[in-house]
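User: quick one
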Amino acid sequence: MEVLAIAGVKIEHLSKSYTVSGKILPVIDDISLTIDEGSITIIIGKSGCGKTTFLKLLHGLEQPNCGNILLPKESKLGMVFQEDRLMPWLNTWDNVTFSLKKKDINKTLVEDTIKLVGLNGFENAYPAQLSGGMRQRAALARALIYNPSLLLMDEPFASLDYFTRENLQNEIIRIHKSNGIGIVFVTHNIDEALKLGQRIIVFEAGKVKADYDLSGYTYVRDILSKPLIEMKKDILNIMKDVSSNRENI
Amino acid sequence: MKNHMKSISVIAIILALWFLFSSLNIWSAYVLPSPYKVFDTFIKMCKSGEIFTHIWDSLLRVIIGFSIAFVLAFSLGVLSSIKPNSAPYYNHIVEFIRNVPPLSLIPLLILWFGIGETSKIIVIVLTSFFPMFLNTKKGLVSCDIKLLEVGDSFGFSTSRKFFHIMLPNAIPDILVGMRTGLGYSWRSIIGAEMIAASSGLGYFILDAQQMARSDKVIVGIIVIGTVGYCCDKLFSYGIKKISHGGVGDSWS
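Assistant: Done. Structure below.
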């Protein structure tokens, strides 16, 4: 991964494959794109299309077979995983400050971050004492306190119920508005993508199938409005087309 | 409270049966001394301080042997989990020693080290080492890769990942190993003291048997069980305290 003085992330001819039972399985296939700094970019696609691998490559948790990821100078990436991945032996406060060294902990900032995700009053609670939504909030706070320039989120609300998910989606928008943090958000939920994204990139079989610009749509969005319903149909058709092409093969 | 009552009722039944059979004089007082006689002997030994000397001698050996075993087991457990390639150097030796009952080494240990403290401490080390080693290794090796990935996502170094993720994650397993190891230590020291010692609870029981003092033998057995039980309870209380006062599932 190279570091350059650019705004946003530039990805050039990125490829990644795994060897499964002696067969080479391409997961990311020659992807080139740029991700704008300070915007919410959604990566959408069905299971197994390479979304999570793309995010891990972006963060450097996995290495590509070929291609480059060019990051802005002094960029810092935070990650929120699909599962909360909180340390079960730490309480909320210690989980949130997990990435920091003791001497770097700013008490006021931690309090503010915990308040931002709505967990004030639960600082001493252990993960086992929190609900699924609260645990995801704690995981979000842990990533935010790391002060990343770009936050990578891998289907963070996939396992949550409708109302908790909606609540957290609104919080993501609020956090983005308040500190302008760039977010790359992976999901397979089209409604979630339309609600959050300033750009939606559709993945299929490790390739970019479509790219939508939603920067003209302000928050809070009505996903039942005509243009967004049209866009949803369009995305669904692309995903269906790819599925039927696959079945025909 | 209900469980306490159940436990007490079983103990009461055993005591009642003991009273009954000893008073019926089916067996001689040598074979089955009465509870009264045993209690009287216990009180006399408490007053003279004899029993406490033996308890302290055994306990001290357990503390020393258990501590040495823990340091060795923890170090080797850490080494085997962070450097799995080192396993061929010690795996076969460890497995060999694991299958040799430590008490079978006593004749050699007496020959080499005499009947002093060393031979008994070695027996404790050999007995309590394995549960602690195997549990430490298991706890460290079975660390969830997803938690380690969290450390990677924050750019943690290998040592920071070890101290902040792997080690705390392994603590419940390490504590279980220590608890098992402590029980093993206690059992093995009594055996070792019965073979080669001039003090301690094992020696005390053997000495009482040779003096035909069954009442003293029973006092010795009750004291061994009680001290072992108290040690285990203290340890489990410590585990509960460390794992956040037993908050639900906070350390599983």
